[in-house]
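Retro notes, structure queue

What went well: the backlog is down to a handful. What didn't: a couple of records were mislabeled last round, so from now on we paste the full input next to the output in the thread. Example, using U-box domain-containing protein from Glycine max:
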Amino acid sequence: MEGFSPEAEATAVAVRRALELLQLNDPVLRVQAARDIRRLTKTSQRCRRQLRQAVAPLVSMLRVDSSEFHEPALLALLNLAVQDEKNKISIVEAGALEPIISFLKSPNPNLQEYATASLLTLSASPTNKPIISACGTIPLLVNILRDGSPQAKVDAVMALSNLSTTQPENLSIILETNAMPFIVSLLKTCRKSSKIAEKCSALIESLVGYEKGRISLTSEEGGVLAVVEVLENGTPQSREHAVGALLTMCQSDRCKYREPILREGVIPGLLELTVQGTPKSQPKARTLLQLLRESPYSRPKAEPDILENIVCDIISQIDGDDQSGRAKKMLAEMVQVSMEQSLRHLQQRALVCTPSEMPIASCASEVSSKY
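Corresponding output:
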């Protein structure tokens, strides 16, 4: 083939051969073709385009009542769908969802994992999202989030995050399946600067828009703390979701959620966000600081709150000249005062715990994560 490199020519031959083998009735050769397609499409966008004709035969392999066909065909389809919108849509249109969703219930953990990864990839398509949701996929993904392998749990929560952005009723389904404890568990154990933390915090931000979601998060030991840790150490996008979640909670019922949020030491991270956050997270951080500052309980005038005075000063001066220099100096002062106040507060609570000091009956969220 004139004009082609030897490597490109060899790839073209391999593509044609794989397509031919898929049409044969020999099970061994069809499995080999699926494995070849998986290999060819692993990194090559061109091969994904050239092998679009393979979608229908591969989907038919998923429907065969023979487990030896399932994994090779599923992995080939998964690679065909990566970064290719047309292939994603074609795979769903060819009827792949029914067998893929059934694999979520398979006793084979590998097949479960590959099916979850496939749904994650397919759900990245806006066209596919409502179709996948309508097939009853969400409860099964929550089951994977609870009982699946570590990789399957990650893919499940990311797929749920994809599906949550299309239809509001999907969030209700996620809440009804009691997914919050498993989302929080994953958020606790992952790196707070990771992509999975970003997806978990985005999902939590959406779920706390419902009272059931807020109750579920605060009832989960270390749930609010995990969100605060993302606010402190996450990516800019993750921090935006974290402050959004906490702000939604506080705005919904400040008297109920102010103390659980303050209890986890959120103030330093919020102050940093007012200076270094994204354009969206900065105003959210300022609003949340104001809500946290204004206590619904009266305070003796003889005991001024030094920390809240510093917070108020930063908010009032944030738009003035030399805002960065002053804010950083105040932030350093705030961190020191916050540590001193927290220590004194813990010492006092070790001696006595009055209803005014602790409006919520349980101290569970102060306990360190067991993960």
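Agreed that this is the format going forward. Reviewer comment attached to the example: The chain has 22 helices and no strands.
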